Amino acid sequence: MSTDFELWSCAAEGDSAAFGTLFDKYAPNVYNHCFRRTADWSAAEDLTSVVFLEAWRRRGEVRIRHESALPWLLGVANNVLRNRQRSLRRHRTALDQLPSQAYEPDPAEDIAGRIDDEHRMREILAMVNRLPAADREVLALCVWSELTYEEAAVALGIPVGTVRSRLSRARSRLKDLLGREAKPQPGHRWSERFSALRTKGEKL
Q: RNA polymerase sigma factor 70 region 4 type domain location, by residue (predicted)?
């Protein structure tokens, strides 16, 4: 098995097959990251395509210096998410000219389930979006995408210590916000989705 460093080096020389291997390896991670930030499956598909198009365009100028290419890819995803509408417009024409390679969910996936997932994710984002943008990004990378502090630091271009402090602050602020909310009725989605966060402070 080639390492990410080797695959990226080959891709930088124009090897589309090597880049395709990286796409197959990390498209689901990028797709899920984009969904958790938008609560929209369709938008997540478009944004995933934009991320990998941007990665392909920059393959010659970027060097992967870590074991995994995922932190850098999620860093690109964060930039695309920050400029979501502008990024989609700018890349739409280019995407239309490429062979179809967008990440496709399982075609047997239940549509009703996708809609329900979007609804629940919007509920979560309604609370998470009350945090400062810097806290949201660290929370999404370290908690949802399960990057290490070091990997999140690569994705965000900040020191590891800053990642630690922002994540601690995000968890503290989120718990405080949850504590201010009126208690939902038993069985309410809100309670179910955040129960682990209240008790452990680790996961959403």
A: 122-174
